[in-house]
Please model this.
Amino acid sequence: MGIKSKAASVTFDHVTKIYGEHVTAVDDVSFVVEAGKLVTLLGPSGCGKTTTLRMIAGLEMANTGRVLIGDQDVTILPATDRDVSMVFQSYALFPHMTVGENVAYGLNVSGMAKDEAKSRAEDGLKLVGLSGYGARLPSELSGGQQQRVAVARALVLEPQVLLFDEPLSNLDAKLRRQVREEIRDIQKNLGLTAVYVTHDQEEALAVSDRIIVMNNAVIAQEGTPRDLYEKPADLFVADFIGDANLVDVQIKSVSGELAEVEMASLQLSLPHRGLKSGAAHAAIRPESFLVSTDQSSEGISGTIGKAVYLGNHMEYLITTDLGDLFVVASDVVNTISPQTGVKVTLASHGVTLVGN
Amino acid sequence: MNRTVLLWLVVGWIGVLILPWYVIEDGFWGLEWVLDGYPFDTDYGPTWAHLLEGEKVWLAPIPLFLLLPFLTGGRIKSDPLYSKILIVSGLGGLSYIVIQGFIVGIAGWEYTSLELLFGPLGQKQYGLGYGAILVSAAFLFFTTQGIAARGAVNGDVFVVSSIGFIVAIVGAFIFFPVSQILISALQDNEGVYSLGVFLEKFTDKKIWGLDCLYSTVGCGAAWNSLFLAITVGATTTALGLVFALVATRSGFKYRKVLRALTILPIITPPFVIGLSIILLFGLSGIMTQFFGDVFGIQPTRWVYGLPGIWIAQMLAYTPIAFLVMIGVVEGISPSMEEAAQTLRADRWKTFTTVSLPLMRPGLANAFLIGFIESMADFGNPLVLGGNFDVLSTEIFFAIVGAQNDQGMAAVLAFVLLCFTLTAFYAQRRWLGKKSYTTVTGKGDGGTHALLPNRLRWPIYTVAFSWTGFTIVVYCMILFGGFVNTWGLDHTFTFKHYITAFSVNWTDGGLQWTGAAWDSFWTTISIATISAPLTAAVGLLTAYILVRQTFTGKDLFEFGTMLSFAIPGTVIGVSYILAFNVPPIELTGTGAILVLCFVFRNMPVGVRAGVAAMSQLDKSLDEASLTLGANSWYTFRKIVLPLLRPAIIAALVYSFVRAMTAISAVIFLVSAEYDMATSYIIGRVENNDYGLAIAYCTVLIFVMLAAVLVFQGLVGERKMGRREPEKTITPASAKAI
Amino acid sequence: MRLSKLLLSTAIGTAIAFSFSVGESAAKGKVNLYCSAQEDWCQLMAKGFEKASGIKVNMTRRSSGETFAKIKAEARNPKGDVWWGGTGDPHLQAAEEGLSTPYTSPNQAQLQGWAVAQSDSAGGKTIGIYSGALGYGYNEDILKKNNLPVPACWKDLLKPEYKGHVQMANPNSSGTAYTTLATMVQLFGEKEGFEYMKGLHKNINQYTKSGSAPIKAAARGENIIGIVFIHDAVKQAVKGFPIKSVAPCEGTGFEIGSMSLIKGGRNFDEAKKFYDWALTAETQSRALEVNAFQVPSNTGAKVSPKAPKLEEIKLIKYDFVKYGSSAERKRLLKKWDNEVKSLPK
Model:
């Protein structure tokens, strides 16, 4: 029988959540998560992303505004009555139940016959690659396995929306990559609606259809991973996603789509993105720098501060007039040693104008 | 229509249409009323029968309130009218029942002003019966559903209903009776209210005197009680911790035996410990004689007073401290201790910086219980008090003694209440807002750190010597039941057991001829009924306190602790004052005993539950909720199984307390419902120790059996943690 | 629906708890007896009356103070019918507070003068059923072991060699001790009486809570001299403890164990029958079966040879009306608290 999907959209309509009297965790937030998509809520700690997720789950109630799942207004519906399931950061596996019982828990709650629930749970475990582990206690599994049990437990309910609260933060780097890909595969294959909370931008870029970046209780920017990476709306987003170098620039003139920009000694033409003449910033991706040891060539002069060999690429810290630049270079054969004078130019992509 | 509303409508209408509205003097379950003039007899009739005969017209609005919820049919929860209808029906109906109950009593109008206004009523009413109970319950739950529908506590019907239920019963069975007696603190002998009387009594030297600091005259009872309670609270907590550590963190082979021995004193009826301490350390005690003969130490009466009470209370309350501590000590996540060890902390450092601070909720709760128990203890100070006056005995004798001063008792009770509430408040401050969560949803397979060496030997020494002492005390008790006259004629005999528990096998079958059987069976059945009720109410309250936030939560918590902080004597008298007359007429029934036990012992269930539950990661509950389970299912399937140690503690404690409580029981027993302790106290008063002890011994074995049954029924909490001495099992090794 | 199941089961649980209501009534009626004598005596009275009359007796035993507190608390809806036994003061107190009801038994003519006097002083609301003289008892063995002289009078107890060897109850909590205090006041006059109590205070090792505790402590060797009712001392001696009882040479006070009908009791007729029956010589003679050594109030009742004989004891003319009244009692207790109890030893 296998797991099917009943994916539904999630809509936030001017939702505000205030804790106590003064702490505004989520401030007038609106967005739509389309059915069948994986949307990530990304942001630093305390930005309101987890509260947003918990409001979708029904674990917190909005003070004002409406929350809809599909067409249904669930604003004051408790968690129990929402067709949503959640994977917790701490896994929240019931320690006194076996893995099988954990996965079958939600099915039993919904009144499914014991045998059917059991076989569905087994299907769920198979889906996450844990067939045959049903009789174990959670404490007898490794962290990654426990996390996959938590995913299976949420999946077997075929929820309208599947929620992930920093599900990978307790795993090591390799497992993290592996599990996130599994999650993404399952989500895509089943066509699930998923909302995913993380503070790890790489993870967000890797798994999401769309990303909602939150900062200080409001949405900073919403878009596809490529949008966010290439067209950050502000300094915060640019900085938060992809370790951009932020440098001061002067917009000389604007004509058509393009703006003439002066960056130290360099003159550039960049899409103006609605900016007017005057002081502005440019976000430059670390991999968008071209570094040359030829002192006579064009470019901004600089000195290599640090050089780190990372196997498939190099990371340099270059001190220039623009400030310290964080640069990634793919050439791992001809590495440049620290204290070497260099000239830095920009590639044709990965440079974006950003307002203040 | 909402199914829950429908259910309570059915219940409510059964209450109105079928069951007798008033309490039936000869007992509802005798069912004699069915044949004896039902439904038109005034004593047995349901509401409509009374009204049809034109009697008790003031009952008429009740069915009207019960009609209202039909209007919710076809409306959805989020409709504002839905909640409004339910709240109006529920709150209105409930208040109406309460008000009419207090206005019309056994002699017509309860207030002379009403009689002047409306003339004599000419009719009377008795206590509320089953019909009224069902209708009231229906109204209560309409109210809570209405409130939940308005979105209170995330719209969780279970939680709102639980809060409503507990508030209602705590109000009816704690606040109502206690206020009845506390008000007499403000009354003089003629019943006139006066603050002067209160102040005069309150400032009495008997309460606050400090003479003991500079003379041989004793200090005031308040200071004595306070000092004793702090000492006992601290030492029982320390001992409880010691035993908990031995039970969980030592490689000691016979931990289980030690554990059983530790909780033995909890199941000891009052007086017995005190008496055996006298026989050991009294002026003519065995130990005193021994030291006198061997070391030439002049025998003194040192045991009478603070030292004696202290030893006896330590014996009596260490087990409770242990039961609270064990759950907490077990619950500490091994990985936190392992983390400390990997951070280069040695075992000692790990223990003092990680394990011990994480035990804070346990320590605080154990101390609080020890403190309150000591404050309210009555039996031990009575036997061993000497000239060391404490509040609980002073209260008892203010009521029953030659002075007959109920007002003084109320004042003393008020002082005692202030102390316990202060302790309660201090405990909360100390715990603060730190997180003590150690059971999380992450499977945790580590092992508990063993005790550091420099701690191990002191702990072993304390544990073993205390256990040894306990064994000696118990041997003395056992011995006392098998000799002719304890302390005088030590000829071996079975006569006490025969007098109390003989049975005859005749043609008619088994005959319980022993003198103690009646009270024995009553005691067992009342204890058996009240134990699970106590545990249920206590843990439900703990769940609400730990897991839910709502306005008035602090007051709610205070209310649930109140009955515990008040000495049994005061509770006993206040129950008679409150429940001897309508609307709730319970004196002379078994129910009053059950209720008294449930509400007196519930705080222990609450404390144990709170301590254990603050260790459970909240995301476990939330996971369950997001998986579609409602709060009730979550409570049952997730919270309760993880609270097994707390459940056992609550069950054992309430069962045992129901079997061993005295001070409240003395006032509440009746001819049909005589309790073992009241029988024993009669024997002790008569210097019939042999019989009293024989009875106690039997009770001890019954309680031991009950403890085992509870353990068996509830089972152990399994979380897959490894036992300290075991190596990694193949299964878990493979998994890692 | 699961929620409702919980609440329903809780409701059922409560319902079962409530179902313990008052039991069935026998064909010949019933009577609720509050008994304040020793347990086995109470049993005897209850079973004896059931057998004699066929009326079911629901007996509850409590000390007299407890029973008084209970009757007072139940005053608006009395659950008891008759109160039998226990020292006279709380019975008088009950009469004073209107908790009991007057009744003249046809058997009253057979009673001793002091029993009838008790009734007269309370307007017929209570009656004497037995009497016992105050005195003290000592543990013979320990007295000898400590080379102490044998005491015979009240004043003997003031001797410094008894320091730390005398026990009496606290008059605030015990009727026995209050009787002692009132006796001293009547025997020596109020000023002298309090001087006596002050002198005694120096020798007292403990004021116990309960009246008979001093002699029980003496019996077990925890104390040497206990000031109690003589019949309590005799009882310990009969049990085999080395206790000797003393009727002090100066004379002494006594208690009158009493019986009252509770006002508003639901089984008044049956209660009256019990009342009459309890005053008969035959009934009172049965006290011997349970080692109760008080002097019965019926002149025809048998007295144990072991019992202290009232005619051999110098009894004072104890003014039960005055010293039984709550005003006088409160005054004396207050005075005792302030002038005696607060003295250093």
In short: The CA atoms of residues 118 and 127 of chain C lie 6 Å apart. The mean pLDDT of chain C is 86.
